[in-house]
Amino acid sequence: MIRRFMGLLTALAAVAATIVFLPAVTAANAAAAAACATPWNSSSVYTGGGSASYNGHNWTAKWWTQNETPGSSDVWADQGSCGDGGTDPGTPSGFVVSEAQFNQMFPNRNSFYTYEGLTAALSAYPGFANTGSDTVKRQEAAAFLANVSHETGGLVYVVEQNTSNYPHYCDSSQPYGCPAGQAAYYGRGPIQLSWNFNYKAAGDALGIDLLGNPYLVEQNASVAWKTGLWYWNTQNGPGTMTAHNAMVNGAGFGETIRSINGTLECNGGNPSQVQSRIDRYQAFVQILGTTPGSNLSC
User: Fold this and answer.
1) Which of 68, 99, 140, 151 is catalytic?
2) Domain check: are 109 and 241 in the same one?
3) CA 260 to CA 199: how far, in whole Å?
4) What is the pLDDT of residues 73-107, one digit of tens each?
């Protein structure tokens, strides 16, 4: 009898062990598998019951709201994680700007500047908009896109519009010269890459022959975005630090302006241009649901 009872206990223990190792099906697990709603938009109006996704979670509005970031106000009820639990739809590789937000920033952009081209370029500089807190990541993305917007008239211009400048961008004293022609190194792309030595340096860093074929920057959206990210992440320009370091180390948006145009705009060089960049940055951080931080001017 005892032997049979012990056998029963052994069998029950085996079943219990099996149950312990089965994953529990909880509300949290179910929420993690939920699809993400349309990403939250700071300018959209949400009424009671309206839904949006933000920071990898779905949220439901309890009553009318506009420009109140989910999680920062009790107007939003957290419905749990969605998608992969970390990013909203349309944010490949965890990029903090969704395609909907990108479209909102650049409603009149040239079709050349695709969101897909931008996200494809991110692998070249994985630290971009992916360093520090969520706030810092969003601030850096907004800062980059604000400067890019200023340089290109809202992503309208792919090439420099003043054609009379074109022949000036060949520094023939460089040992490699200007193999594509003296007038071939004019401003192109989101950061308006110019000069033969910059095409050479960017091409070397990216593994692309941009010195020999600078036209790739106006023909391939991913290459164009990569040149912008190259400058942002690796070049001090006329400043004392890269724009990337300025944003992730707390120097502020103003130092990104200095890294791009130095005293041509900063230190009283052109206050209206500085303000134009600041205005775009403030608009973009609002779209991304964060704050601009300090040191906006230079």
Assistant:
1) 151
2) yes
3) 16
4) 677 788 877 765 444 444 445 799 999 999 999 99
Asked whether the predicted pLDDT for residue 209 surpasses 60, the reply is yes
Tokens of 181: 């022609």
Q: How confident is the model at residue 293 (pLDDT cuts 50, 70, 90)?
A: very high
The reply to whether 157 and 48 lie within a common domain is no
Confidence (pTM): 0.71
Element (H, E) at 78: strand 76-81
Beta bridge partners of 52: 59
Q: Is residue 151 annotated as a catalytic residue, yes or no?
A: yes
**Which domain, by its residues, includes 59?**
34-89
> What residue spans of the chain are helical by DSSP H?
2-21, 27-32, 99-105, 115-121, 134-152, 196-206, 216-219, 221-234, 243-248, 253-261, 271-287
CB atoms within 10 A of CB 264: 13
